[in-house]
């Protein structure tokens, strides 16, 4: 089916003693990736972020490590990226507008998700950064009734019935991926694209449309209220635990794989109703069952055509990765973190 | 299957006495659209072009008409569009990088095909231009083995096996379409998206990957050489005659349809081999049969998965349009124009 994965010795970066940058570093995935690289002995990890979405809180626990440098910068300013990428062995590019922010400001979202990728790739070319890991998304398979069954790397982009912001987001990730391919073709830039499914985990924020159910359900049951599900709760979501993604980023840097795009999803999908029920159970309130509500037509909703599963077999083949943390375990970690953070 | 077409009396523009602008006007489709609008009694037609691809030649025959104004401007400069769109009833937005130019300069291509659309829509909002016709492309169905059978408006975007520039082009048109939808949703901008199939006709240039076979075959047989076909010539192409598209643009302006995207393709698809043979026959050299050559891997090629046909039934339903000029007739007109132009 798929072509064999391209491999090149120069694509493989050793983490121990290496120098890396995470663009969009002050984020859920960014801070976890930084932890992972530090744990594996990286000599330096730079966290590049403009702090428009990222927060100092997300990386506060990392700042005491002498190997960590926080760079406040904007990926739309090429000169800032050029300065920040000097001497790097590898770069993980996470910074992006997601669907909700794309809906608020598509003008800026297109800039960040497309020109931003061009600037990052241009800086890596200029400074000979050997390996780029680009965070794409299962949004490249789109939304709406066409999205169902097993989503593999060859699945086309469906958009009928989806809101403009979701399609813009998915298309922007398709563009970002092709800019990586183009950089490989033009000047041999080694890269791995990871198509993240919906991320969740410690330091979960309120910006991701799909993960909102987790934090909103947790908030509700702690107030003693029933969690709310929009519709009948039967639609599929396929999450991936943030620590598993951090490991995927690190393994993509280490791997000799290049010029490839692979799915990184959790062990199994869940339905919204299963998710909400699980959160209530872990929170000790299994009695607070989900209340089903009609959709609000003014809000961005992400729909699919029914049961789907994001296949991650290719990731094992390409970079040796597979998810390790199941949904219940990952949720327990996330909720414990939220309880600790709330004091 | 499809939702019923949205209709609104204010979306319908009367051509007679109306004021219109064609962005990317100094082009194959632009000049034909200008002719069509003039023939139907438009009071004014502005041709906005930066002349980077467009040419003075393409519109030389129009300049003597007092109703025509040529505006040299750049869609990346919003203030130029703001000045040029004052007092308009409708606008046809054609300006874009196609696959070959996207391959040469993806940086500029993304600017023109995305930011350019945003600027055009912003200017139309500011100056209350009632109707926008946006030239999209069957590239929104993508390329590669997934593209086969009947391509209808709901067909997803396929990209496996396609070169980066082709995917960037297709994705840029998906983005442009969604920006129109977003403008409709946010501030009621009426628009019709026409998904052009491959255009051909009088004033054919060398910039469109798919139409190259026509002009290159014509050039070859006039030199007494056999035309060259890359591969076995069995892949499908679905052309549309430029005059049919000019009519579609005009009918989209006139129609009360809004917030809709429709295919505008010619009567029937052809294979590359049929096309090349037809051009040789019309040129009076049926003896010069096609010579099949192996593909050059360094060149951008647009492939599909086999026989496909771009369905245009929805266009009849939405704006009353269907193609009128068959491939042999259209080719005869194109080749006669080339022979006249060559003197």
From TrEMBL, chains A, B:
Residues 21-257 form the NAD-dependent epimerase/dehydratase domain. It comes from the Bacteria. Gene3D superfamilies: NAD(P)-binding Rossmann-like Domain (3.40.50.720), UDP-galactose 4-epimerase, domain 1 (3.90.25.10). It holds the Pfam family Epimerase. This is UDP-glucose 4-epimerase.
């Amino acid at each position: 089916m798929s072509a064999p994965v391209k491999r090149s010795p120069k694509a493989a970066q050793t983490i121990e003693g290496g120098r890396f940058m995470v663009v969009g570093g002050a984020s859920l995935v960014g801070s976890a990736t930084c932890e992972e690289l530090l744990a594996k002995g990286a000599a330096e990890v730079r966290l590049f972020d403009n702090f428009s979405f990222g927060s100092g809180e997300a990386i506060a626990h990392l700042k005491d490590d002498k190997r960590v440098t926080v760079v406040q910068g904007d990926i739309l300013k090429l000169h800032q990226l050029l300065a920040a990428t000097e001497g790097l062995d590898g770069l993980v590019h996470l910074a992006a507008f997601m669907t909700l922010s794309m809906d608020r400001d598509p003008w800026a979202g297109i800039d960040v998700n497309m020109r931003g990728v061009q600037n990052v790739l241009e800086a890596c070319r200029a400074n000979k950064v050997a390996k780029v890991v680009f965070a794409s998304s299962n949004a490249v398979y789109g939304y709406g009734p066409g999205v169902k069954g097993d989503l593999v790397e060859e699945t086309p982009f469906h958009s009928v019935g989806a809101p403009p912001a979701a399609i813009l987001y998915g298309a922007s990730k398709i563009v970002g991926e092709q800019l990586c391919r183009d950089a490989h073709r033009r000047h041999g830039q080694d890269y791995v694209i990871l198509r993240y499914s919906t991320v969740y985990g410690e330091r979960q924020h309120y910006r991701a449309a799909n993960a909102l159910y987790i934090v909103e359900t947790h908030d509700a049951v702690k107030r003693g209220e029933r969690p709310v599900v929009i519709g009948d709760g039967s639609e599929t979501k396929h999450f991936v635990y943030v620590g598993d993604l951090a490991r995927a980023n690190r393994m993509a840097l280490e791997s000799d794989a290049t010029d490839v795009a692979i799915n990184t999803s959790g062990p199994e999908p869940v339905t919204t109703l299963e998710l909400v029920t699980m959160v209530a159970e872990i929170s000790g309130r299994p009695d607070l069952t989900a209340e089903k509500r009609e959709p609000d037509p003014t809000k961005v909703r992400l729909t699919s055509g029914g049961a789907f599963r994001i296949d991650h077999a290719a990731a094992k083949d390409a970079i040796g990765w597979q998810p390790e943390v199941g949904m219940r375990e990952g949720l327990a970690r996330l909720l414990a973190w939220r309880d600790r953070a709330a004091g």
